[in-house]
Give the backbone structure.
Amino acid sequence: MCTSREDEEFMRLGVQYYVAARRTALAGLLPVCGNLYHHALEMFLKAGLSRTHSLQDLKSKKFGHKLIDIWNFFKTDFDSTELQQFDATIADVHDFEEIRYPDKVLKNGAQMLVDWGTTPVQSSATMPMYKLHVNDLDRLIGEIFRVSSRNPLFFTGGLKRDVREMLARDNPIATQLLGN
């Protein structure tokens, strides 16, 4: 269904959202970094899905912005046992879509956390918890590149030096993403 151009454009957008998400995570900007990770993952997953689904189909309600549904379609198209380990990561990022607007946070409150894999998550029973584990997100993105047979260097090679440094910081897939 797809031309390589469609796949490439989705991947290019995914990398741009990923750069913005990681930068805002470093800055502690919540919930915005969660929304940006949501967009990044949606673009990366739809890149792979564009090989078997039309752009019109990918914009339909069947896919829309429902990250868990998109993820399940992706796991069907790219059958890899490695992907299942990221189900909880996808669910965590998906939760940020519901607080894209402030109404739920104003009504129910919210606890928000960004960690790099070292902070134990503690939750109050009275407020919903929204959390991002950046290292898990990095590994997920690396796995998406791997299973969809895409070379990250093609998409990151032209990034500015300071952006490359930011992406490399505390990133378990820095070598995969950036080389060296």
In short: The mean pLDDT is 92. The longest helix spans residues 4-27.
